[in-house]
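A reminder from the course coordinator: this example appears on the midterm review sheet, so study it carefully.

Given structure:
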């Protein structure tokens, strides 16, 4: 039985960064956190639970819409895990109705794949005016078919996020989804502030990639952007320097009326851990100078990891390391009702990552935590 203590230089416990705190490891899991005894193994770096990403369209050369299978989901999870993301929501975007059915079946078959915590359904019940890279051919009103998929996944306890536009979705349907326990997220929307508030009152609790594919904030009409910022919704934001200017990311974080409601999301595509191009709706999307561009020259998802997003939040946006880590770990965990994923306690060593002084990912704790050898009695 392997049983020992580890003490990192610093530890993010889900809320703050601490020093002088050890972890009691037994058989590859953390079973206690506290003052470490003498002889504890020292590990250099900042130790933290691995990142959580609630918007992952693909990775490892696989796009979920194009490969809605258990194997495809496993490839996506593996691609992101190598960059420190240990828990994620595979995300299916606007497509034919049968694609959602196939993805739902794949998520059910993916039970047991490390890091797959549920499903994000982004569209097709969105605003055509704010569709972004989503294909307008497949946009349609929310129907019983989608509600049935969400209800089934929730009935078996699987976390679900569904992104929709409140101005094209009856409030009664938003309430039905919310009552299943799904996280209703407002996005790809041209809604007014009043329509956003009505959706919140009906049960919406989140917003999808703040600023992007949303009606903008102006002096006389807050739009969806202003309404979200001024609410207590959880809100994802992409910090790649392309989707949202760094100064606007910082402004949104500072302007929220309730702290720790901003979440880092990647909106990553198949190019993370994969080739520099992929097919979307039958057309090439190509990575150029850090941006994913479709044939029209518009952004089509993002090529960034949560690890890179955390670094940018600290170095470019200027927020504190512990606040950046909460955005990439604690807040998304709370949003989806999986708060245990924000703590190092009761976690396998493969789910804990070590960061260097520049907050880049060195590796998992399993790579550095070496149990002390039992002395040879004959020596």
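Designed residues:
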């Amino acid at each position: 039985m392997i049983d020992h203590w580890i003490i990192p230089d610093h530890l993010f416990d889900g809320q703050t960064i601490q020093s002088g705190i050890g972890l009691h490891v037994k058989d590859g899991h953390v079973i206690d956190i506290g003052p470490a005894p003498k002889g504890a193994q020292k590990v250099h770096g900042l130790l933290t639970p691995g990142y959580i990403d609630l918007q992952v369209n693909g990775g490892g050369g696989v796009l979920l819409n194009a490969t809605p299978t258990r194997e495809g989901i496993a490839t996506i999870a593996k691609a992101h895990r190598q960059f420190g993301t240990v828990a994620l929501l595979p995300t299916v975007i606007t497509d034919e109705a049968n694609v959602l059915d196939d993805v739902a079946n794949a998520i059910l078959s993916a039970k047991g794949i490390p890091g797959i915590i549920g499903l994000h359904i982004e569209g097709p019940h969105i605003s055509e005016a704010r569709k972004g890279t989503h294909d307008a051919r497949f946009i349609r009103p929310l129907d019983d078919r989608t509600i049935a998929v969400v209800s089934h996944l929730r009935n078996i306890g699987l976390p679900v996020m569904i992104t929709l536009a409140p101005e094209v979705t009856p409030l009664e349907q938003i309430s039905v989804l919310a009552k299943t326990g799904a996280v209703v997220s407002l996005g790809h929307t041209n809604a007014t502030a009043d329509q956003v508030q009505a959706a919140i009152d009906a049960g919406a609790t989140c917003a999808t990639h703040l600023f992007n594919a949303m009606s903008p904030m102006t002096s006389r009409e807050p739009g969806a952007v202003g309404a979200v910022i001024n609410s207590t919704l959880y809100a994802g934001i992409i910090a790649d320097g392309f989707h949202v200017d760094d100064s606007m990311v910082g402004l949104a974080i500072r302007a929220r009326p309730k702290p720790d409601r901003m979440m880092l999301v990647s909106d990553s595509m198949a190019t993370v851990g994969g080739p520099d191009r992929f097919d979307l709706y039958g057309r090439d999307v190509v990575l150029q100078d850090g941006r994913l561009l479709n044939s029209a020259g518009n952004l089509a998802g993002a090529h960034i990891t949560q690890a890179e997003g955390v670094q940018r939040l600290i170095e470019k946006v200027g927020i504190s390391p512990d606040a950046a880590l909460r955005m990439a770990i604690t807040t998304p965990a709370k949003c989806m009702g999986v708060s245990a994923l924000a703590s190092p306690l009761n976690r396998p060593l493969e789910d804990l990552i070590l960061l260097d002084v520049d907050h880049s990912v060195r590796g998992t704790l399993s790579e550095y935590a070496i149990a002390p050898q039992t002395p040879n009695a004959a020596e």
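Confidence is low (pLDDT under 50) at residues 373-379. The chain has two domains: 3-49+345-367, 51-342.
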